[in-house]
Design goal:
heterodimer, A: mainly alpha, 15 helices, B: alpha+beta, Dna Ligase, domain 1, 5-stranded mixed sheet, 4-stranded antiparallel sheet, globular
């Protein structure tokens, strides 16, 4: 397998996972805000905070209202982190690696891209936004299902899986970052009343509410949720599960050099987190550390397999 | 209900499907019956379905313009073009004959030049050819075949005869559109395809792969083939990716390949370097190897010619094969067939005047406004003069261009190329078409059943190139014996 192809498939998967994550995040957030009373400190602005994109947002907009934020996160082609930009990048990557994937994979992504492109204006109002996001989520699911059913689970597949899981782990950690804000000591009495709803929505953002209930047999509590989303070994979107999936891919890829070691280190870093004993500040720094380590892992993957000169 | 055929004109040229507004040719009886059974809205619906399929399948080509490169959906007309299999078998034979002779000629040009020595062609034609590569002299590609993939353009004149317009021996494109057109037609007219005995075409990638394997430098053990593309910004990138995928081989760009000190070609993979045996290259000679050809090429692979000459890698088409893809050389193909094969040409050439020949030049100058003038080495329909359609000013400016560089121009009578019914705003209208079959030659020779029919979508236009407002049609070769 060509190094260049490996790189493109890895990025294809990252961008598609990002597309799906943004869609899910916006959709869950929209539901959450409908449940909360007017005037609590949770708002649309939180979504820009998660993506660390305040500066880019205010370069393009004056007011952080629902309309502007939805447009920015979903439809803005000039903002690299938007859903549409991610989908466009995914399409470019698959367009240049079609020879490795089943026909339907390209058609699926292309169809989704054309749909998004023709419906960008629909993200402004709530009703059509819901439909838009549903369509995107379904499209991403179809893609994943299609590959798992049609494609040999070979090296190209492993790079796709690797990209998907590193992006997923990163997004889960960002969502937990948002959660850590909810634990802040200074939160208002009013917000405290709605804590259960907030945690439920965090779980929903990762499609994990039902699984949480089955696994934990308890009501939805902050530290249990954190534990579940970081460490559970069966939930596909938990950080622990993502790392396990990456580990499997890396160990089955040729020339993996020091990468298995890095994965083991990452695994023990996550295992060592004890959510019951941490303050909000500690949690934030742990999550920061996790994101940095994921960034480091990405660098190492790229250096190991994608940089051409090293192959010689 | 108004007929979709109303006022269909068959007097401007030979029409492939119709004798007149009211009478279809035998090959198209079934099709016409079927179309008549549909409501007008149904036909529109099918057209929309086809356009949607093209968008979703992402069948596109790139147009270069001042505003940057635009990826355009492939313009497709849902009404197929039909040829009787009995006629096709003769054309097929003619195409094989032609490519065989062309390959004999290329081999000869790079070795003894017997054809020239026998006085069949002036040596200046080769000496002044842009596509003659002196680096290739003495080479002997496997099976002595230089042009492994050829796209030959055919047109039918008002006399009903199919003429060869040109042979594309460098990097002919369009075969993926031929294949995708059939996929779309199957989606759009599934009922129709069941009732008519149409020769299948989807075995092309298999034949291409077999041909590539047959030219590998070694014939024992597994062979690694790749498709070499100039990259995503090339207008035919879609096709490169499509063919690689259909053959199940890697699609590589120049910088994925490296030639080592052992003069072998390797690709950079996640497992390190892997040896490459056969390269289906879709890059022009000029850009193939900066060590030998254009130094500024970033698309090619430094050392590729070294590896090829050392016999460690096969290139299809072989470098230098383009020497026969020259509209001046074209004029000599009938003589090549007689000389090398000792046969009479099955497919006729269009009469061609060579501006380098003083007698011909004089005729061309006198009849410029009636002729089509083409540069010898361009493709894509660029730099042409269509006399009868040009203004007096354009004709005069061309006169000067030819005088300055007679070797590089040829002229041909303006053919009245055939038409086929094409859906235009809910009605059928005749539009001019050509046909590009693809011929593969390695150990064996193979011709596609039909080819890519290109159609000039603009009323009256004779230019079928997709870069200039052309579209395409599915091409059916049908067995008539049983019906």
């Amino acid at each position: 397998m060509l190094s260049r192809s490996a790189e493109r498939l890895y990025w294809l998967a990252r961008y598609l996972e990002r597309t799906e994550n943004i869609a899910r995040l916006v959709s869950v957030h929209m539901n959450l805000l409908m449940d909360l009373p007017m005037g609590v400190e949770m708002g649309w602005k939180q979504l820009i905070l998660i993506n660390a994109s305040e500066q880019e947002f205010y370069e393009r907009n004056n007011v952080a209202n629902e309309r502007n934020i939805a447009k920015f996160l979903l439809a803005d082609p000039t903002y690299q982190g938007s859903l549409f930009s991610s989908l466009t990048a995914a399409r470019e990557n698959i367009r240049t690696s079609r020879e490795l994937l089943p026909d339907e994979a390209w058609e699926q992504v292309n169809e989704m891209y054309l749909f998004a492109k023709n419906n960008l204006d629909n993200v402004m109002n709530r009703r059509s936004r819901v439909l838009f996001l549903n369509e995107i989520l379904k499209g991403c699911q179809r893609f994943t299902g299609l590959l798992s059913g049609y494609m040999s689970h070979n090296h190209p597949y492993r790079f796709i899986r690797l990209g998907r899981n590193i992006e997923r782990a990163d997004m889960t950690s960002r969502i937990l970052d948002l959660a850590s804000l909810l634990l802040s000591e200074s939160r208002s009495e009013e917000l405290r009343q709605y804590e259960t709803i907030l945690w439920m929505n965090i779980l929903k953002a990762l499609n994990a509410l039902l699984m949480y209930r089955q696994q934990m047999h308890s009501r939805v509590k902050g530290d249990d949720v954190l534990n579940f989303l970081l460490l559970d070994t069966n939930l596909p979107r938990s950080v622990g599960c993502c790392i396990a999936a990456m580990s499997e891919c890396i160990n089955n890829l040729p020339n993996h050099n020091d990468l298995p070691l890095t994965i083991v280190e990452l695994e023990s870093y996550v295992q060592a987190i004890d959510t019951r004993q941490t303050t909000q500040a500690q949690l934030r720094s742990i999550l920061d550390g996790l994101q940095n380590k994921l960034g480091g892992l990405h660098g190492q993957i790229a250096e190991n397999w994608f940089l051409r000169d090293l192959a010689e | 209900m108004k007929s979709i055929w109303k006022n269909y004109k068959t007097d401007i040229a030979y029409d492939e499907l119709m004798y007149s507004e009211f009478q279809s040719r035998p090959v198209s009886h079934r099709l016409c019956q079927y179309l008549d059974s549909l409501k007008k809205e149904d036909i529109d619906k099918r057209k929309i379905a086809a356009e949607l399929a093209i968008m979703e399948m992402g069948i596109s080509f790139t147009v270069y313009s001042d505003e940057g490169n635009i990826d355009r959906a492939w313009p497709f007309d849902i009404i197929p073009r039909i040829i009787d299999a009995r006629e096709w078998r003769i054309i097929e034979k003619g195409l094989k004959q032609r490519l065989t002779a062309l390959n004999c000629f290329i081999s000869d040009v790079y070795s003894g030049q017997e054809f020239i020595k026998a006085g069949k062609m002036p040596s200046e034609i080769i000496n002044s050819s842009k596509n003659f590569r002196k680096e290739c002299v003495g080479m002997q590609p496997r099976h002595n075949v230089w042009a492994n993939i050829c796209g030959t353009d055919l047109v039918r004149d008002k006399d009903g005869i199919m003429y060869v317009l040109e042979d594309n021996l460098r990097v002919p494109s369009g075969v993926s559109y031929m294949l995708e057109n059939r996929v779309i037609t199957k989606r759009v007219f599934p009922e129709l395809l069941q009732d008519i005995d149409i020769l299948p075409i989807d075995d092309y990638p298999t034949h291409l792969h077999d041909m590539l394997l047959s030219i590998a430098p070694h014939q024992d053990g597994p062979v690694t083939c790749v498709v070499l593309t100039p990259g995503i910004y090339n207008s035919a990138y879609f096709e490169h990716a499509y063919l690689a995928q259909q053959m199940g081989v890697q699609l590589v760009e120049g910088n994925d390949l490296v030639v080592n000190d052992d003069d072998c070609v390797y690709m950079r993979t996640i497992e390190g370097l892997e040896k490459v045996d056969v390269i289906y290259r879709r890059i022009d000679d000029d850009f193939l190897d900066p060590e030998v050809f254009r130094k500024d090429s970033t698309l090619g692979v430094p050392g590729l010619m070294r590896a090829w000459k050392a016999g460690n890698v096969a290139l299809a088409n072989a470098p230098g094969a383009g020497v026969a893809d020259d509209k001046v050389v074209y004029a000599y193909v009938p003589d090549m067939i007689r000389y090398y094969l000792n046969e009479e040409p099955i497919l006729p050439n269009v009469p061609t005047y060579l501006c380098s020949n003083p007698d011909h030049l004089e005729y061309v100058m006198e009849h410029l406004a009636e002729l089509v003038v083409k540069p010898a080495n361009e493709s894509g329909g660029y730099g042409m003069l269509v006399g009868p359609h040009a203004t007096a000013k354009e004709v005069e400016s061309f006169r000067q261009i030819i005088k300055n560089d007679p070797r590089n121009y040829i002229a041909q009578p303006t053919l009245s190329i055939s038409t086929a019914p094409t859906l235009c705003k809910g009605k059928l209208e005749p539009r001019h078409i050509d046909l590009r079959p693809f011929i593969l030659q390695g150990e064996n020779t193979f011709v596609t059943a039909g080819g890519l029919t290109r159609v000039a979508l603009k009323k009256g236009s004779l230019v079928v190139n997709s870069s200039q407002g052309g579209g395409s049609k599915d091409t059916w070769i049908i067995n008539m014996e049983d019906s």
